[in-house]
Specification:
321 residues
């Protein structure tokens, strides 16, 4: 069969359900989740920026994580909402490649930031006397910059590998966004080089950071167990409890999606499972940090207090003659 010109190829995102009766409910659900994600992470960023005592390496990485989570969900959810609202599941070939590229960038930055935050907690608990010397502003900035550079390069390589492929017909992707594996496996040309690059990237970019996180927390647990007082152990553990919860949620859901895709051939089930790490986890991160972190909780209270005070002032000025 003669392959089509790539500029004429359209992709069809089949979404989470083919039942049209569920579309209004899905639209309302994902719109609500997206708004909560954006507003929640923006509040975390504002609380960190406005409170000077939160200008530490730990909260510097957290503010970057919140920003990435906003971008992460913004690559997929708005397009899905537009498709549901317009009752059209199409996306252009260029749009599909662009969405895939940005999804790869933000997902990998997310992984690296979680790894860097684990290293930050490792230094804080295992080498507290040298913490400010080791985690200096220059190193923190370099770690974040390196995370972005590696993520962009990885996404560029994967996108270029996809661009070399040819497709016989219009794509029907059983997902709510252009996921790399799904797009590659619909190609008519040889995908073996793409598969090799994808597997190597998975080992280097996903498995190695996860191993580094596990190593960091094994050292952290050893250090915490060596603390004699129960109060000291609780205080040391509470400093990394929020991050450990986020890591468990992100990697737990990602691993669940990977295992489910290996066990089942139902692509719609995999798409639904992907919602957990691509939509639900970024939404829950602000709640985890605000509920389990006393500094963030108190900063948010001060922020809401300022907002409420300013609203009262505006209302008084409007009422005055």
């Amino acid at each position: 069969m003669r392959t089509q010109n790539k500029t004429q190829i359209s992709a069809f995102l089949l979404g989470l359900s083919e039942d049209h009766r569920l579309q209004p409910a899905l639209f309302g659900l994902f719109l609500s989740m997206y708004m909560v994600t954006v507003l929640g992470n923006l509040l975390i960023i504002l609380a960190i920026i406005l409170q000077t005592h939160l200008h530490t390496p730990m909260y510097f990485f957290l503010s970057n994580l919140s920003f990435v989570d906003i971008c992460f969900t913004s690559t997929t959810v708005p397009k899905m909402l537009v498709n549901i609202h317009s009752q059209s599941n199409t996306i252009t070939y260029k749009g599909c490649i662009t969405q895939m590229n940005f999804f790869l960038i933000f997902s990998v930055v997310d992984i690296f930031l979680l790894t860097v935050m684990a290293y930050d907690r490792f230094v804080a608990i295992c080498q507290p006397l040298h913490y400010m010397v080791i985690m200096n502003p220059r190193l923190c900035g370099l770690l974040v910059l390196l995370s972005w550079i590696v993520s962009v390069l990885h996404a560029l390589v994967q996108s270029l590998m996809v661009l070399r492929l040819v497709f016989c017909t219009d794509l029907e992707i059983p997902h709510f966004f252009c996921e790399l594996n799904q797009v590659v496996h619909f190609a008519c040309s040889d995908t073996f080089p793409n598969d090799i690059v994808i597997y190597l990237a998975t080992v280097i970019i996903a498995c190695c950071p996860f191993a580094a996180i596990l190593y960091s927390y094994s050292k952290i647990v050893s250090s915490i167990c060596a603390i004699s007082s129960a109060q000291g152990r609780y205080k040391a553990f509470s400093t990394c409890a929020s991050h450990l919860s986020v890591v468990s949620l992100f990697y737990g859901t990602s691993l669940g999606v990977y295992l489910s895709s290996a066990v089942t051939e139902n692509s719609h089930s995999v798409a639904k499972a992907s919602v957990m790490y691509s939509v639900v986890t970024p939404m829950l991160n602000p709640f985890i940090y605000s509920l389990r972190n006393k500094d963030i909780k108190s900063s948010l209270k001060k922020l809401f207090g300022r907002i409420t005070e300013n609203v009262h002032i505006v209302l008084r000025l409007n009422k005055s003659p």
